[in-house]
């Protein structure tokens, strides 16, 4: 890397990938934002939406500009206009819904987490590989332009050996929110803890030691968790998540040659500061902080991979998804965070 500039992101633009027909399973908050991002920033088609209610499917489909609306997943899977299905149902449904999509021979992008635990994710991955269809977890962070810039800093050695990772993700939610509902696999870990755990395992891999402590919300779900990961190299990761309070929501990568400090909401589009330790040079990377309008980047990656005949994305292989869920499982075991449907 030049001392005067950072690498340039290599993420594809909307005209660099084939146009696919997307089937949207689910009509909630994240499905609405995914569809809005697709319509605003890509040439991808919303071929169909599906809900358990035909009326709800039609209402959502009309609002999102979908070509067709279906009152069941089976009806959408029979739709020849659907090339790939985005699974945006509640967490407990991800595993079964993804398996049904794969069994129908459709490509699938599963909203994070791919499943409640690593074993369920292994089953989805194995089924997709056997069927020869594309499958990925929609952990959108790793498909953002800024993370491709960081990826280049890491792989080029400009950061040196990474020995420290810090990340947190915490938000306050009112008592009626689904994240506090035990019947929906609520709690901080699946919605929010996925980001810092992904961040650490993406950079450092599988830890050899995990330590975690947690505190419950009044509804009984695990409301806050602090995690410490240790690696054979001596590297450490300090992570925290909460659905009870706002946290700084920042991330930091500390290497022997340099450091990357992300702005608030590190997992979303935005900026970071790079510090070269030897020269003392500080460089800024900035991109518009468009929040969930940046979800379109994961759709472009899916289209790119399917167009190239890939069944996985090299930016987030299925093995990486399983690996971080293994860490999530260990954390939840230590703090006693078991879901009623497990």
Brief summary of the model shown:
This protein is α/β, with parallel strands linked by helices and 342 residues long. The chain has helices spanning 29-41, 54-64, 73-77, 94-103, 118-131, 145-156, 188-204, 296-307, 318-335, and strands at 21-25, 45-50, 68-70, 84-87, 107-111, 135-138, 162-170, 209-216, 222-230, 236-242, 251-255, 258-262, 272-276, 282-285. The strands form 2 sheets. The chain has an 8-stranded mixed β-sheet with strand order 8-9-10-7-11-12-13-14, covered by helices on one side.
Please provide a written account of the structure.
- This protein folds into 2 domains: 128 residues, Rossmann fold (3-Layer(aba) Sandwich), CATH 3.40.50; 170 residues, Dihydrodipicolinate Reductase, domain 2, CATH 3.30.360.
- The protein is 33% helix and 23% strand.
- It contains 9 helices and 14 strands.
- The chain has an 8-stranded mixed beta sheet, covered by helices on one side. Strands 3-2-1-4-5-6 form a 6-stranded parallel beta sheet, sandwiched between helices.
- The radius of gyration is 20 Å and the shape is globular.
- The N and C termini lie far apart (47 Å).
Shape: globular
CATH superfamily of the largest domain: Dihydrodipicolinate Reductase, domain 2
Output the number of helix runs.
9
Q: From the helix content, strand content and strand pairing, which structural class follows?
A: alpha/beta
Low-confidence stretches: none
In CATH terms, what is the fold-level topology of the largest domain?
Answer: Dihydrodipicolinate Reductase, domain 2
What is the CATH top level name of the largest domain? Alpha Beta
Percent in helix: 25-40%
What is the succession of H and E elements?
EHEHEHEHEHEHEHEEEEEEEHH
Question: How many structural domains in the coordinates?
Answer: 2
- Oligomer kind: single chain
Rg from alpha-carbon coordinates = 20 Å
**DSSP strand count:** 14
User: What is the name of the CATH architecture of the largest domain?
Assistant: 2-Layer Sandwich
Strand sequence of the main sheet, in spatial order?
Answer: 8-9-10-7-11-12-13-14
- The amount of beta strand, in percent, is 15-25%
**Largest sheet data:** 8 strands, mixed
Whole-Å distance between the termini? 47 Å
């Amino acid at each position: 890397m030049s001392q005067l500039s950072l690498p340039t992101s290599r993420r594809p633009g909307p005209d660099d990938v084939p146009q696919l027909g997307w089937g949207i399973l689910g009509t909630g908050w994240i499905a609405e934002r995914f569809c809005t991002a697709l319509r605003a920033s890509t040439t991808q088609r919303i071929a169909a939406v599906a809900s358990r209610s035909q009326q709800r499917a039609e209402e959502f489909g009309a609002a999102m500009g979908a070509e067709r609306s279906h009152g069941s997943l089976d009806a959408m899977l029979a739709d020849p206009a659907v090339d790939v299905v985005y699974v945006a149902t509640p967490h407990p449904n991800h595993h079964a819904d993804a398996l049904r999509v794969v069994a129908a021979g459709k490509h699938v992008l599963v909203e994070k987490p791919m499943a409640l635990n690593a074993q369920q994710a292994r089953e989805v991955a194995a089924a997709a590989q056997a069927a020869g269809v594309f499958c990925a977890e929609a952990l959108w962070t790793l498909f953002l332009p800024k993370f491709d810039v960081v990826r280049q800093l890491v792989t080029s050695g400009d950061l040196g050996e990474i020995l420290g990772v810090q990340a947190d993700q915490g938000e306050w939610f009112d008592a009626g929110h689904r994240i506090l509902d035990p019947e929906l696999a609520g709690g901080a870990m699946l919605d929010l803890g996925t980001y810092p755990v992904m961040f650490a395992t993406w950079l450092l891999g599988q830890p050899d030691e995990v330590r975690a402590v947690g505190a419950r919300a009044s509804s009984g779900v695990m409301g806050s968790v602090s995690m410490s990961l240790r690696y054979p190299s001596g590297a450490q990761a300090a992570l925290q998540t909460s659905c009870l309070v706002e946290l700084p929501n920042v991330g930091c990568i500390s290497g022997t040659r340099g450091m990357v400090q992300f702005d608030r909401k590190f997992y979303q589009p935005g900026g970071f500061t790079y510090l070269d330790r030897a020269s003392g040079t500080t460089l800024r990377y900035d991109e518009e902080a468009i929040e969930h309008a940046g979800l379109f980047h994961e759709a472009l990656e899916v289209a790119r991979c399917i167009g190239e005949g890939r069944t996985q994305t090299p930016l987030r292989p299925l093995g990486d998804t399983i690996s971080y869920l293994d860490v999530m499982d260990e954390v939840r075991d230590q703090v006693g965070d078991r879901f009623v449907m497990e």
